[in-house]
């Protein structure tokens, strides 16, 4: 073959290899299966080209035959190395190493998981967040024709609030071509507790996104920046100033060629400027919430739970084998996002033996031994309470309600909108409370805990105090259908709460009257236990019954003592 033809063929091969690399973006790394597959494809193409050339040119050159044999030998060797490397990297041979990939601590639920206020509880699941994001985008007339919401919706902790964020993307190829100069102008931010949905507009558009088609495509940009890095699943996050970033975990393989996958480094890429920074896992900034994906954490815990006594035990007798249940959710604790999932025995029935919380930034993992219902059982229990409405339950969120591990579940209608909330006790999943609001649901749940003997009424240790003074102000209010009077005295700056249901004669009180009250401190207003009007020397009346001293009754009948004019009303 002429030198010119060889040069042309070599150029074509190089161009095809470059196009393959540009499109598929394989990591140039011995631990990457894509690298091995790409090398194999390249050699096969060379073999085919040699074989076709030999057939059509009827070349019987011994040198070319040797080349074909050499290429075939290389393919065989690569296949053998790949297979041997896969076996050596598998849990079959390295069960103990796999079991130690994750360190799991025993946790104390009530200490580790604090009771959250209602404005910190993520009430929405991902599907509902998608609906809210699409609705918000549909209302933006100036953008909806050019952009649409990406389906990423990463859950993060932003300024101590659980939120989901997702960038916009170009609606199609033409819209990309007409808008690529300015980039993506905004992203969606949804507060998962308050359901507040915002379209956050940026001063400068995001140039590096998943919807770009050339070099500014985030996957291509990261590959060209670090050709040897094997990236895990990317996530979209914002820092404390609202600046958008791509978080790209870099895989680390510590067992053989392809086994023992964890995360070794993290690349942060500014979505606006494309600037990248690489961190070791231990040095990742605090605002970053997702280094380890939930799927990876689940897989690592499954290794930990099933390989305690070796690989054969995990397949045959399965003694002491634990595995995660289907599904997971997220919990915001201490400015980090923790992945939650249930844990069940491989040989067990439809019940959990505990649950696990894993930090998505640090991989800190805690296991809690709490026997109870699986998430699917809790979802069925919640749906059973509203079966006439045919609501569907979302995957549960694990909460600490009054010291009890509790499944919190949103109930949605056919349109995907949240209509009610449910709380199901993990250990006694027949205890199910339903409410139209979170506060109502919690109130119903606490009543069920008391009525079922799970909890007892807390002993009131507040000290009973006494105050005497003239009334300076009186105000009335209705709380839960009961009238209350609020008093202020000249001898104190406190506000005293008196229920009409307990003290009916309170309606007769006027400014300037002297009263003596027993009360307990109760937040903003003190709870009145007894009330005496005037000097307190006359007959005492309680809200339960009127009482008179027996000796006084004899004195009244014998001496015809004049009746007291002041009444005392006492609870």
Explained architecture:
The chain is α+β, with helices and mostly antiparallel strands and about 575 residues long. It is about 30% helix and about 30% strand. The protein has 14 helices and 29 strands. Strands 1, 11, 12, 13, 15 and 16 form a 6-stranded mixed beta sheet that branches. Strands 2, 3, 4, 5 and 6 form a 5-stranded antiparallel beta sheet that branches. The longest helix has 27 residues, at about 60-90. It is elongated. Residues about 535-570 have low confidence and may be disordered.
Give short descriptive properties of this protein.
571 residues; alpha+beta; 6-stranded mixed beta sheet; 5-stranded antiparallel beta sheet; 14 helices; 29 strands; disordered C terminus
Q: What would you call the quaternary organization?
A: single chain
Structural class: alpha+beta
The low-confidence runs, each spanning 5 or more residues with pLDDT under 50, are 536-571
Quote the beta fraction: 25-35%
Number of helices: 14
What composes the largest sheet? 6 strands, mixed
Q: How many angstroms separate the termini? A: 112 Å
Compute the number of strand runs: 29
Report the mean per-residue pLDDT as an integer: 85
Shape: elongated
- Radius of gyration (CA) equals 35 Å
Estimate percent helicity: 25-40%
